[in-house]
Design brief:
alpha/beta, D-Maltodextrin-Binding Protein, domain 2, 5-stranded mixed sheet, 9 helices, disordered N terminus
């Protein structure tokens, strides 16, 4: 009888441990303030709400930790957090697993229409002063890196509101930034001169990274379900006014 009681106690302990584990929030590492994708003060933005919806479909509570983009992957490798967002797939990683792309960024070059600047490809940027987002030379194509070296005035900034202000005040001729971020700040700008937007860059698709293969698979299944829902379309329309503004290709849950 004593042996049976101990066995039963072990089963009960296992059940309670499982419940505790199920209730433990997923720790998601995300970038710093970057509206309309991430708004730290209100803990929302398109990317935050998308990830929250994916976690809801996974039936998992979620907590977000805001860190500089450069540190996200390193922290995951160090055992901090369960999910590292905004990652590109790196071949040869044996202990890291990647989801399907869950978000798309579209970097563009923007000029004031009144300046009558024509940009057909990256080489056309060479004569102009450029203000780009932080680390642009590291994430954009090699051809862009060469332009940055030869530009008469090339700068990068972490404050993307400043990019729009500098453009509207004629203090820079070209800004390079994500199109949705540009529209967000330009709609709030005091000056609102007409602009020309040039999609000189191919879209960038970002994935989530995991130490757990099972968690990556669960994320993919939930992502596919979210992408097929009306909530996914409505979320993009609410933040961008466009149902496909940040949508990557549909997720194949078997992709890892």
């Amino acid at each position: 009888m004593r042996r049976l009681w101990l066995t039963g106690l072990g089963v009960l302990s296992g059940i309670w441990a499982g419940v505790a584990q199920a209730e433990k929030p997923l720790q998601v590492l995300v970038g710093m303030n970057k509206p309309p994708y991430i708004q730290v003060d209100s803990s929302d933005g398109y990317e935050i709400e998308l990830l929250r919806e994916i976690a809801r479909v996974m039936q998992q509570p979620v907590e977000f930790t805001y860190v500089p983009n450069k540190r996200i992957f390193t922290l995951l490798q160090q055992g901090i957090g369960d999910i590292a967002t905004l990652q590109k797939k790196t071949e040869g990683q044996t202990k890291i697993f990647y989801s399907c792309p869950y978000i798309r960024y579209q970097n563009v070059a923007v000029t004031l229409a009144a300046n009558q600047i024509s940009l057909n490809d990256l080489t056309d940027l060479a004569p102009f002063s450029i203000l780009a987002f932080q680390n642009a030379v590291q994430v954009l194509p090699e051809a862009y890196q060469r332009i940055a070296l030869t530009s008469p005035s090339y700068r990068e900034t972490v404050d993307q509101r400043t990019q729009v202000e500098m453009l509207q005040k004629q203090r820079v001729q070209v800004v390079v930034m994500d199109m949705n971020i540009f529209h967000y700040y330009n709609n709030k700008a005091e000056q609102g001169d007409q602009v020309q937007i040039y999609p000189l860059f191919t879209p960038t698709f970002y994935r989530a990274a995991f130490r757990s293969k099972d968690l990556a698979r669960a994320f993919n299944r939930a992502l596919q379900q979210v992408q097929r829902s009306s909530a996914y379309t409505l979320l993009q329309e609410r933040y961008f006014g466009n149902a496909l503004a940040a949508a990557p290709p549909p997720c194949d849950p078997n992709e890892l």
